[in-house]
Every structure is written in structure tokens, then in C-alpha cells.
Amino acid sequence: MSYSFRNDNRLPQARLAVVSYVIVGMIGLLLIGFWKLQVIDSDKYSQWADRNRIRSIPVIAPRGRMLDRDGRVLVVHPVEQRAHSPDQ
């Protein structure tokens, strides 16, 4: 029973080298992607951020009584709530 241990050490080192190259390649791809986002596409994302920063949302004015500073009623707007049902 003689085993050759010299060949056993070579296989894990080769796998380790392949895995190392794959990891370095993936990190390289990530860095290239980050560089593309920061340098090449920065104008596009800057414009998107400017458009997204200010957003106008219409607010419907509440209806009801309008009072003067003494609390007297000036105008009364009836509050209407209508619901539409598909049966009508």
C-alpha cells in the first residue's frame, strides 16, 4: 500500500487557483459596473434624481364652513360624498 501524496497536493491548489481567478474576475466586473454607473452614466442618473426630487401632488380642498376671525359663518359649502355602484 503505497500512496503518492505529491499528486494529492496539486489538485486542491489548482482548484484554489481557479476559484481565486473566478472571485477576482467577479470583483473586477463589479468594479467595472460601478465605474460605469459613476462615470459614464452619471448625467442620466443625475437627471433622474432631479426629476424625482420634486413631485407635485394635487390636494383637493376640503369643503365645509368658512368662518371669519370671530368664528361667525361666512359661507357654507355642503359636503358631498358620492359613491358609484356598478348596479346603477
Structural features, described:
It is a single chain. With 88 residues, this protein is mostly helical. The chain has one domain. The chain has helices spanning 5-40, 42-53; strands at residues 65-67, 73-76. The model has no long low-confidence stretch (mean pLDDT 80).
Mean pLDDT, to the nearest integer, reads: 80
Given helix and strand content, the structural type is: mainly alpha
Between the first and last Cα atoms, what is the distance in angstroms? 93 Å
Number of strands: 2
DSSP helical segment count: 2
Return the string of H and E elements. Answer: HHEE
Provide the domain count. 1
Shape by Cα distribution: rod-shaped
Percentage of residues in DSSP E strands: 5-15%
Features:
88 residues; mainly alpha; two-stranded antiparallel sheet; 2 strands
Q: In terms of topology, how is this protein built?
A:
Blueprint: H1 5-40, H2 42-53, E1 65-67, E2 73-76
Antiparallel strand pairs: 1-2
Summarize this structure briefly:
The protein has 2 helices and 2 strands; from the N terminus they run ααββ. The protein is mostly helical and 88 residues long.
